[in-house]
């Protein structure tokens, strides 16, 4: 990508050092990657394949969280409401609620927290239902300017494709001869959601700047994101500064992480989407971690 003779380009067309760094990172990633970063103090930003739509996995839970807090701000939801979890509510995959006795009664705030920090799928479907369903989430995304285009629009976009229950029903129906990883990589009927790195980063920026909901709600969301329990080999792996982030996992072929790194030089929004991974999954995660480490060094130099 960079072997085109940069010196021959006019000065205005010369990529910035940050753009060159991102391009090299994407080229070296063992899969298909998209990245968008923005330093919220200096305003410097760059992206590579940042408007392309990727398989979101659990990162699409971020707009569900934001919508719930906006509705709470308007008095349409009560975060301290107790929700009884029934056997029919339980979902497989990530999370902890499925390991508890049925009849557990967490608050809606607890449910949202688990949707974020353990990426709990039971919590996710309960949250989607509370905010009005998949169609309501997507209508809200369109209203806020996050509707996905073909992937070539200004910010790419975000869309919730289905609930986790609907998604896992499809996966459970696959036969041993079906290409499960192929479905995850390229069949959007098997995606929980679709997102671009830039649109996701812009939503995180709005949360950090307290414009996505009330200041108190934005602070609450950031506390949840900073309590993240998953993806410890990704953005925060090699960092000694706080990170508020949301992961998306579908081993062995998908590892996403998006968040805000609180570098010494100021908050740094990072969206790293890694799809169609080949080779060792842990090594791919480590590459995301090393990227974040070098990115912080770039800005904190």
Per the CATH scheme, the topology name is Beta-lactamase
- How does the major sheet shape up? 5 strands, antiparallel
Mean pLDDT: 94
Give the uncertain stretches in residue-range form.
Answer: 1-9
* CATH superfamily grouping: DD-peptidase/beta-lactamase superfamily
User: What gap, in angstroms, lies between the N and C termini?
Assistant: 26 Å
What is the beta-strand fraction? Answer: 15-25%
Q: If strands are numbered along the chain, what order do they take across the biggest sheet?
A: 2-1-8-7-6
Assign a percent range to the helix content. 25-40%
How do the strands and helices of this protein lay out in sequence?
Layout: H1 17-28, E1 32-39, E2 45-48, E3 54-55, H2 61-73, H3 108-117, H4 121-131, H5 134-143, E4 158-160, H6 164-172, H7 180-186, E5 193-195, H8 197-208, H9 215-226, E6 243-250, E7 254-263, E8 266-275, H10 281-300
Antiparallel strand pairs: 1-2, 1-8, 3-5, 4-5, 6-7, 7-8
Helix pairs in contact: 2-4, 3-4
Verbal overview:
The chain has one domain: DD-peptidase/beta-lactamase superfamily (Beta-lactamase). It is 39% helix and 16% strand. The chain has helices at residues 17-28, 61-73, 108-117, 121-131, 134-143, 164-172, 180-186, 197-208, 215-226, 281-300; strands at 32-39, 45-48, 54-55, 158-160, 193-195, 243-250, 254-263, 266-275. The chain contains 10 helices and 8 strands. A hairpin with a 3-residue loop joins strand 6 and strand 7 (254-263). By secondary structure, the protein is of the alpha+beta class. A 5-stranded antiparallel sheet has the order 2-1-8-7-6, with helices on both faces. Strands 3-5-4 form a 3-stranded antiparallel sheet. The model is unreliable at 1-9 (pLDDT under 50).
